[in-house]
Amino acid sequence: MNRLQGQNRRRRRMSGNYGMKRGFITFWLAFLNQIITIALGSSCPRLVLVSFGSEVNGLVNSITQIFVYFSFWRRAWARLPFRRSMACRPG
Q1: pTM to 2 decimal places
Q2: Helix segments in the chain, DSSP class H
Q3: What angle do CA 52, 67, 27 make, to 5 degrees?
Q4: FRET partner for 1 with CA separation of 20 to 30 A, picked from 21, 37, 43, 87?
């Protein structure tokens, strides 16, 4: 593909209602994702309780909570400023 074809492809992508269509599709996919998350979040704990009992349900909830804490720590750690002077000290 030569340079002119690449420029034409970029122009076509940016012209018209392409951004609006893409935003519309993104909105509905996010909405569908939330509906599926709500449905599974309300039905899966009940299935675990009926099938395995409260001990396994408690274990699953504890493991999930640990992953949530790790996620929060990772986000907090990513926001900390990195000081090159402290990290690369000689000796």
Answers
A1: 0.49
A2: 3-14, 18-52, 54-79, 84-87
A3: 95
A4: 21
